[in-house]
Amino acid sequence: MMRMPLIRDHIYFKNNLTYDILTSSFNYTPGRNRRNCSDRSNKLWRVVIFRGKVLLLYKNYKNKYEGWVLPKGTVEKGEEHDETALREVKEETGVSASIIKYVGKSNYTFNTAFDVVNKDVHWYLMMSDSYYSKPQREEYFVDSGYYKYHEAYHLLKFPNEKQILEQAYSEYVDLKKKNLWGNKKYY
């Protein structure tokens, strides 16, 4: 089998075979290859922290387990990434938060019935002003709350969100050690 270069979180092989690094699984997608990838849209994930605890949402679509997730959303036309981050957190959770730091960018892909979809993901570390949260029912969020880091890590369903949480929480700990968390001069 001829190995194609590493792209995002997958290794592509000849004959439409894909190895997903995050789930350690092989996928065969007949009639598709990496050249057929579409939808290069931006997605934003936010790690919102208040007094050391992480905000999570529980999504349940049509009584099917979806699981605990970080707040996220898509950039609307004419909107900047930081504006999207603030808007989506407010819409999904009712939380008033402020951006502390842009943490980074990554990419992921997933298969649909008709295509392979690419997403660019931008991560933000944010601080809320209270423990208040109210899940957005229209998006099938049925619960939300703040959890200690180790609880949040184990509750999160998707490996890529666990990686985001690890990096963002590490940034949070570093800022706390330097006495910069919540300091208006920092952001």
In words, what does this structure look like?
The structure is a single chain. The protein has 187 residues and is of the alpha+beta class. It has 3 helices and 11 strands. The strands form 2 sheets. Strands 5, 6, 7, 8, 9, 10 and 11 form a 7-stranded mixed β-sheet that branches. Strands 1-2-3-4 form a 4-stranded antiparallel β-sheet, with no helix packed on it. The longest helix is centred in the C-terminal third of the chain and has 19 residues. The N and C termini lie far apart (49 Å).
Structural class: alpha+beta
Q: N-to-C terminal Cα separation, in Å?
A: 49 Å
Biggest sheet architecture = 7 strands, mixed
How many whole angstroms does the radius of gyration measure? 18 Å
SS elements, strand count: 11
Oligomeric state of shown chains: single chain
What's this, in brief?
The protein is of the alpha+beta class and 187 residues long.
Give a topology summary:
Layout: E1 3-7, E2 10-13, E3 17-20, E4 25-28, E5 37-50, E6 53-61, E7 64-69, E8 72-74, H1 81-93, E9 97-111, E10 116-128, E11 141-147, H2 149-155, H3 159-177
Parallel strand pairs: 5-10
Antiparallel strand pairs: 1-2, 2-3, 3-4, 5-6, 5-8, 6-7, 6-11, 9-10
Helix pairs in contact: 2-3
Which terms summarize this structure?
alpha+beta, single chain, 187 residues, 7-stranded mixed beta sheet
